[in-house]
């Protein structure tokens, strides 16, 4: 009993220590990055204010400052670790699928990602922190695992490390938004085809601890009086909305579904254009700093406050945009009247000669393409926060329209309640981010970001409707990037494609397999090692996804007859060859003929379940009986199955 207690305490203690270290490290990194990027933006705005009255110099400073930071981020990542470029979530999804991507979880990638992302956020460009920070947290978990393996061998286990990477995803989201519950749910939705329940407590503990430390550091730095929500709202709780407003919330959700799908499409088209072998793309590839520099120049020119930026609140930085879009004032009622105290930075949305509707519409249209293009720059960047701001602007636009249509508010039980455009902004933010990422947990993230759940019902309605529309039109942004980059990730089996369920393993397996048996001689082993470049030699859809397989070895009556790798299964599901031509499975006609002949045989000596029996064995059974979760043997008549 004593040894059992010691064993349990030791194992629990190791994970507790690891998760505390992970949460503490990521909270410190997140706060440091926010502090540095905030100081950079303060300098940016200070220069602009100091040069007031000299428009040419103002413009020069306004475009030069972000160009320097963005090009520095691009160059630094290119020299230190090109794997730090982009979001990181698509690559992490692939890694969690069991695929090894070299150099993505190294200390070099960590340094490049942190420094590059800090510079990108400090430039004021529409780039987000959430995606790259999930990658940063995963690198931190991988490095900590290697460190902890000195004290315990459990951290050398590949399956255990995969579990810790899932926890790291939750920590990454939690430290970005101080949203531990939403962080865990978002990490499950985005990265996991199947989620092991044993990781639940790890994810919640690490995410809660990291979010707590992150907000404590803000209090310590006197950025906040106490631990509060990141973008705290003050909507009334007694009657935040009326049921008559539900159609407007539904319209926001459906519209955000279409807009989210179009955002993913536009982002993918920009990436595909940059990958086409044209003279322009070859020139931009050769001179790597021109593309990010040109994109930054164009965006900063449009947002220049004395120029076109005055018609789209161009002077506001990302956090200022969110805080102002979520405020309690109805801007359409402020036009032509004295500005009330407490309006703050929201004054940038009010122009003496232009309607609020025009400014919000221009902001949404311009920031839409700016966000889609800026996230393709070769720097660490995410799309969650830019899309979040876009959704907030769209929701605010609908809210201001509703406030105009019902200027006196909505009558209920003898009491008139005014429309809250800020509530519409929160719902739009959750709906558009949900549509782009194909997640529902964005609603929970919004609850934690704002500190209020007053709009829980309309928000869930809008997010679900947005997902229904977007999922029928486009893949998620992360899956879209996986497709463009051709990462070895297994696509989902669509519910409507019945033909995929009739593909057998024998149709797609590789038949020429080098293998060893218990009767193999030393000479045969030596010859095999000399003649092949394979790193693994066999002795031993749901299957691949659930077990994280990279290969499945196919047997017939105990004899090895073929092997199915991840790429064969991927091509079979996509239903195309490398050239993109759709082909009929090679043994389909033979199988169909055999099926017809079997229909006339009412009895058979074998059981129907015999051909679909699976044998799951460890690769190193003789060497200690350890299950590695990488290989699996099946019969040649085993079908591909839908994960559901």
Which characteristics define this entry?
644 residues; mainly alpha; four-stranded mixed sheet; 4% strand; Chloride channel, voltage-sensitive 1b; CBS domain; chloride; transmembrane helix; transport
Please, could you describe this protein's structure?
- Keywords: CBS domain, Chloride, Chloride channel, Ion channel, Ion transport, Membrane, Repeat, Transmembrane, Transmembrane helix, Transport, Voltage-gated channel.
- It is found in: Membrane.
- Its main location: membrane.
- The chain is mostly helical and 644 residues long.
- The chain contains 23 helices and six strands.
Which runs of at least 5 residues are low in confidence (pLDDT < 50)? 576-593, 598-644
Which strand order do you get reading across the main beta sheet? 4-3-6-5
Distance between the termini: 42 Å
Mean pLDDT: 77
Helix-strand topology string: HHHHHHHHHHHHHHEEHHHHHHHEEHHEE
Proportion of β residues? under 5%
Q: Overall 3D geometry?
A: globular
Q: Which oligomerization state do the chains in this entry correspond to? A: single chain
Q: In angstroms, what is the radius of gyration?
A: 28 Å
Main pleated sheet: 4 strands, mixed
What is the count of DSSP helices, taking H or I runs of 4+ residues?
23
**Helical amount:** 55-70%
DSSP summary, beta strand count = 6
